[in-house]
Amino acid sequence: MAHCKTSLAAFIFSSSTDQWLAAPSKDLSGLALDKHDLEEMSVAQHYIPKRHYAYGCFYWDWVQFGIKKLLLLDTTNMEFSTADLPPGEWSKQGIAIVEAGEGRLGMFGFHSETSSDLSYTVARNKGESPSQWQMEKTMSLDSGYKYCIRDATQRYFLFTRVEASTSLENRLVVGYFSMDIKTLQLQRVYEKQYYSQYQSYTYINFPPSLLSSRRI
């Protein structure tokens, strides 16, 4: 994906032909965004937001910039469009877009920067562009920590927690946790203390020669 000053573009690499294909670019003014959102996206043109994938569509959230919309790219026709986030003030520490089943989107997120209540919201309608959402469940986590959603796969989403009392300069990651999207079962994946500037990434679908079973 390329985010230019006035437009968006997507590029597809084919592993069978080793060639790149450019999808038609989309002018930002044609995405049904208001003036504030367009200004924020223009300011953030150097920044590619977190990507999500569900039901054949890629989604990008702009929560970090106060934009309450999802940008989506339908891979069947390679067209950009937007969809509204569920109502409320969502934390800038990330959201996770997942497949909730029966063709409906699901979203995990926190309602404020200091909240330890994890909300799970599901779109009422089927399809890639949700128009209405309904709250499915709110899960209270330990209030002594701050949380950040890192990534999501088709089965799990991953988040971290850090000590709430630790300064921003020296904040230590206390633990990585996964949640099963279907059962909402929480599991500790990894626990280690180190400085927050080190980033983490999720890899899935390793070749069988590397991992004997499906893992995060």
UniProtKB/TrEMBL annotation:
Name of the featured protein: Uncharacterized protein
Taxonomy of the source species: Eukaryota, Viridiplantae, Streptophyta, Embryophyta, Tracheophyta
PANTHER family from the UniProt entry: F-BOX DOMAIN-CONTAINING PROTEIN (PTHR31264:SF9), OS07G0554500 PROTEIN-RELATED (PTHR31264)
Domain of life the protein comes from: Eukaryota
